[in-house]
């Protein structure tokens, strides 16, 4: 990596300076602006920075920041790791991450789903990790069948080793043109986007249904064509992961919830492709307690607030699973650019699970959420600000679920809590 | 209507990309608020469309699901029978296009629709994404239409339909009008939970199915409408 041509070295150094300035002026994590300056000076920079490293790309609708963090933490067992830890998941962020750790022999990059084909082409990554695809902020994201189609085209004919969640039919379809795939049964909590076969459009039958008999509930197969769930090499089984040798590993993560156990199963399969055994990887996964503010608990005026991020319907489902049903809850929703300007997705979330809990609603689009809860028959209190919501709550533990920019605003109030 | 109001949501497995469930939930809430027992039927694309429903809903979707949905509805025939019987329908975005004679497929190729509305659609040059506001046909006596659109379609209205509204902000059909109405069918590009932002439109559909309706408490609907309309129209609101 130290063999970068002079122009690329200069571009990368200038990028780092801009990143330092951005952090110093408090305008951001600095991870994107640095990369943008670098890319403008040297469009080929990403390719050059990626050369000669063992690189994994991580993509999905949900859990990519957390899974990237888990993989990077485990790989430190083997040596220095370059990674975009702040979730800056487009090429500018990748340049910034790689130029920040020039000599790291290993790299793990979280990649925005739309950018995966481009980044794979540019970097020639040896490993690609794919977890799930579901409806996201549709006013800016690509449509997900189309997205999976683009993954197929990008992976076809490349040597990359893909690690993919075979419990998600769309991910399976997107991954199945790859030369080599390790299938992980990581579960699928949100199913509203996979009732139809991505191959032929026919109905997908699920395990436990009349058509599928006693198969496990994660099993699926098309009723009209041959497309079906591949046999997994790795299996998430409750609190345990079973590896391809049949060894059972208790996860014991500090990160909460089934979605994170699934992320950990995928991470173990990914680092195995780097030659790292679960026995060495697991202790490192267990050291991860929060990821860019997610799952962290912050204190204010005698209240302990646990921060959960939920950016789309599948993310809300995961946040509800982690949330403690005995606690009051603050919900905060914005609709700025990164959130998607359209709040329609609120109607895909089933809020009835909140029945019986004290619910406080805030955020820039609180009226959209208020109406949504009203129609669901969930009583709530509308608050003009996050502070007002906190002040209205009794002392003690409180859960907070917020979407992207709402989450960042709350995190900033607590000094960019990590 | 028989003993209960039957709302039929067509193909949530194919055509439900943008919170389309919201329209069914809003109709259910507003019918129940009038003491009308209501049931929502989710009809998957592998199942026949029941013919005895009162209000049919069909939502938005990607290109491939839209083509598949149109093919299956044409083959099934249940929706066509229900409409011939006098059932009401709200068709949204991709579902709206399916109701016409033709719409544009993945590569812009023409795909035949159900011909329940005298419209024809094709792919436009640019994606229309953003808030939309429009003045509704005065004959319908409805307040300003508000919602969000996200589509690439251009729709031409034939003599058999009337425009639902004239756009103030947004693209709609592409000719200054948005949506259309014919008999008891409403088509619109306002995607997802269009009825959450337009409770009067929900009540129009309900009144077609069950007759005149007493008013209900609209506080949260109204507050959201006021906020959105003033955000989009500013002083014009
Ligand atoms: Zn199939």
TrEMBL record, chain A:
Annotated keywords: ATP-binding, Cell shape, Cell wall biogenesis/degradation, Ligase, Metal-binding, Nucleotide-binding, Peptidoglycan synthesis, Zinc
Matching Pfam families: Mur_ligase_M, MurT_C
Cell wall biogenesis/degradation among keywords: yes
Binding site for Zn(2+): 197, 200, 222, 225
Protein's pathway: Cell wall biogenesis; peptidoglycan biosynthesis
Alphabetized GO MF terms: acid-amino acid ligase activity; ATP binding; carbon-nitrogen ligase activity on lipid II; zinc ion binding
Enzyme class: ligase
Residue span, Lipid II isoglutaminyl synthase (glutamine-hydrolyzing) subunit MurT C-terminal domain: 309-406
Active site: 342
Reaction equations catalysed: beta-D-GlcNAc-(1->4)-Mur2Ac(oyl-L-Ala-gamma-D-O-P-Glu-L-Lys-D-Ala-D-Ala)-di-trans,octa-cis-undecaprenyl diphosphate + NH4(+) = beta-D-GlcNAc-(1->4)-Mur2Ac(oyl-L-Ala-D-isoglutaminyl-L-Lys-D-Ala-D-Ala)-di-trans,octa-cis-undecaprenyl diphosphate + phosphate + H(+); beta-D-GlcNAc-(1->4)-Mur2Ac(oyl-L-Ala-gamma-D-Glu-L-Lys-D-Ala-D-Ala)-di-trans,octa-cis-undecaprenyl diphosphate + ATP = beta-D-GlcNAc-(1->4)-Mur2Ac(oyl-L-Ala-gamma-D-O-P-Glu-L-Lys-D-Ala-D-Ala)-di-trans,octa-cis-undecaprenyl diphosphate + ADP; beta-D-GlcNAc-(1->4)-Mur2Ac(oyl-L-Ala-gamma-D-Glu-L-Lys-D-Ala-D-Ala)-di-trans,octa-cis-undecaprenyl diphosphate + L-glutamine + ATP + H2O = beta-D-GlcNAc-(1->4)-Mur2Ac(oyl-L-Ala-D-isoglutaminyl-L-Lys-D-Ala-D-Ala)-di-trans,octa-cis-undecaprenyl diphosphate + L-glutamate + ADP + phosphate + H(+)
Residues of the Mur ligase central domain: 61-172
Highest taxon above the source species: Bacteria
Keyword Lipid biosynthesis: no
Ranges in coiled-coil conformation: none
InterPro entries in alphabetical order: Lipid_II_synth_MurT (IPR043703), Mur-like_cat_sf (IPR036565), Mur_ligase_cen (IPR013221), MurT_C (IPR013564)
EC number: 6.3.5.13
Self-association state and partner proteins as the record states: Forms a heterodimer with GatD.
Family (UniProt): Belongs to the MurCDEF family. MurT subfamily.
Function: The lipid II isoglutaminyl synthase complex catalyzes the formation of alpha-D-isoglutamine in the cell wall lipid II stem peptide. The MurT subunit catalyzes the ATP-dependent amidation of D-glutamate residue of lipid II, converting it to an isoglutamine residue.
Protein name: Lipid II isoglutaminyl synthase (glutamine-hydrolyzing) subunit MurT
Organism: Planotetraspora mira
Gene encoding the protein: murT
Automatic annotation (TrEMBL), chain B:
Function: The lipid II isoglutaminyl synthase complex catalyzes the formation of alpha-D-isoglutamine in the cell wall lipid II stem peptide. The GatD subunit catalyzes the hydrolysis of glutamine to glutamate and ammonia. The resulting ammonia molecule is channeled to the active site of MurT.
HAMAP family hit by this protein: Lipid_II_synth_GatD
The protein's annotated pathway: Cell wall biogenesis; peptidoglycan biosynthesis
Name listed for the protein in its UniProt record: Lipid II isoglutaminyl synthase (glutamine-hydrolyzing) subunit GatD
Similarity-based family: Belongs to the CobB/CobQ family. GatD subfamily.
Amino acids binding substrate: 127
Pfam family membership, one: GATase_3
CDD domains associated with the record: GATase1_CobQ (cd01750)
GO molecular function: carbon-nitrogen ligase activity on lipid II; glutaminase activity
GO biological process, one term: regulation of cell shape
Domain CobB/CobQ-like glutamine amidotransferase: 7-198
Keyword Hydrolase: yes
Record-linked PANTHER family: DETHIOBIOTIN SYNTHETASE, LIPID II ISOGLUTAMINYL SYNTHASE (GLUTAMINE-HYDROLYZING) SUBUNIT GATD
Subunit structure of this chain's protein: Forms a heterodimer with MurT.
Active site: 93 (nucleophile), 191
Assigned keywords, A-Z: Cell shape, Cell wall biogenesis/degradation, Glutamine amidotransferase, Hydrolase, Ligase, Peptidoglycan synthesis
EC number of this enzyme: 6.3.5.13, 3.5.1.2
Keyword presence, Membrane: no
Reaction equation(s) it catalyzes: beta-D-GlcNAc-(1->4)-Mur2Ac(oyl-L-Ala-gamma-D-Glu-L-Lys-D-Ala-D-Ala)-di-trans,octa-cis-undecaprenyl diphosphate + L-glutamine + ATP + H2O = beta-D-GlcNAc-(1->4)-Mur2Ac(oyl-L-Ala-D-isoglutaminyl-L-Lys-D-Ala-D-Ala)-di-trans,octa-cis-undecaprenyl diphosphate + L-glutamate + ADP + phosphate + H(+); L-glutamine + H2O = L-glutamate + NH4(+)
């Amino acid at each position: 990596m130290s063999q970068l041509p002079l122009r690329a070295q200069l571009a990368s150094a200038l990028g780092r300076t801009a990143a330092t300035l951005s952090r110093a002026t408090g305008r951001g994590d600095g991870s994107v602006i640095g990369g943008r300056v670098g890319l403008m000076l040297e469009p080929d920079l990403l390719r050059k920075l990626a050369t000669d490293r063992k690189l994994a790309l991580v993509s999905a609708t949900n859990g990519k920041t957390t899974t990237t963090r888990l993989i990077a933490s485990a790989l430190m067992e083997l040596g220095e790791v370059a990674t975009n830890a702040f979730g800056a998941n487009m090429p500018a962020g990748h340049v910034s991450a790689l130029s920040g750790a020039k000599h790291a022999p290993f790299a793990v990059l979280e990649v925005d789903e739309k950018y995966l084909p481009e980044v794979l082409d540019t970097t020639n990554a040896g490993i690609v990790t794919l977890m799930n695809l579901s409806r996201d902020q549709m006013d800016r994201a690509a449509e997900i069948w189309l997205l999976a189609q683009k993954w197929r085209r990008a992976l076809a004919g490349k040597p990359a080793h893909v690690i993919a969640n075979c419990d998600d039919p769309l991910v399976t379809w997107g991954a199945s043109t790859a030369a080599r795939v390790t299938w992980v049964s990581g579960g699928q909590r949100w199913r509203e986007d996979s009732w139809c076969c991505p191959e032929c459009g026919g109905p997908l039958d699920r395990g436990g249904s009349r058509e599928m008999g006693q198969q496990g509930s994660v099993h699926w197969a098309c009723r009209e064509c041959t497309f079906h769930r591949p046999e997994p090499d790795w299996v998430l089984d409750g609190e345990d992961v079973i590896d391809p040798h049949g060894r059972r590993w208790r996860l014991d993560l500090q990160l909460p919830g089934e979605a994170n156990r699934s992320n950990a199963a995928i991470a173990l399969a990914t680092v195995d492709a780097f030659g790292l055994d679960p026995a060495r990887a697991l202790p490192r996964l267990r050291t991860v307690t929060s990821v860019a503010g997610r799952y962290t608990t912050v204190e204010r005026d005698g209240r302990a607030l646990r921060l959960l991020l939920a950016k789309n319907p599948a993310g809300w489902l995961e946040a509800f699973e982690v949330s403690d049903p005995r606690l009051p809850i603050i919900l905060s929703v914005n609709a700025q650019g990164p959130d998607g300007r359209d709040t329609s997705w609120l109607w895909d979330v089933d809020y009835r699970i909140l029945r019986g809990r004290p619910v406080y609603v805030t955020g820039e689009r609180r009226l959209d959420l208020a109406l949504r809860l009203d129609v669901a028959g969930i009583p709530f209190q509308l608050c003009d600000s996050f502070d007002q919501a906190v002040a209205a709550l009794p002392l003690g533990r409180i859960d907070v679920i917020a979407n992207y920019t709402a989450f960042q605003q709350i995190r900033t109030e607590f000094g960019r809590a990590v | 209507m028989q003993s209960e109001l039957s709302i039929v949501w067509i193909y949530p497995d194919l055509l439900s990309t943008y919170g389309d469930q919201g329209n069914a939930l809003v109709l259910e809430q507003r019918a129940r608020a009038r003491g009308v027992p209501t049931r929502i039927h989710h009809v998957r694309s592998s199942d026949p469309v029941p013919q005895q429903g009162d209000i049919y809903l069909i939502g938005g979707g990607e290109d491939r699901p839209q083509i598949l949905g149109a093919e299956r509805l044409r083959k099934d025939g249940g929706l066509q029978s229900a409409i011939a019987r006098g059932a009401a329908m709200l068709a949204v975005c991709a579902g709206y296009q399916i109701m016409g004679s033709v719409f544009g497929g993945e590569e812009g190729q023409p795909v035949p629709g159900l011909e329940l509305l005298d419209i024809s659609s094709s792919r436009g040059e640019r994606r229309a994404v953003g808030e939309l506001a429009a003045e509704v046909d005065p004959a319908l006596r409805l307040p300003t239409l508000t919602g969000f659109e996200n589509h690439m379609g251009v729709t031409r209205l034939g003599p058999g339909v009337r425009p639902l509204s004239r756009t103030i902000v947004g693209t709609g059909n592409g000719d200054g009008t948005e949506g259309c109405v014919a008999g008891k069918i409403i088509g619109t590009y306002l995607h997802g939970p269009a009825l959450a932002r337009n409770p009067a439109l929900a009540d129009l559909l309900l009144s077609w199915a069950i007759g005149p309706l007493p008013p209900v408490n609209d506080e949260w609907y109204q507050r959201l409408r006021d906020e959105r309309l003033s955000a989009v129209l500013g002083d014009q609101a």
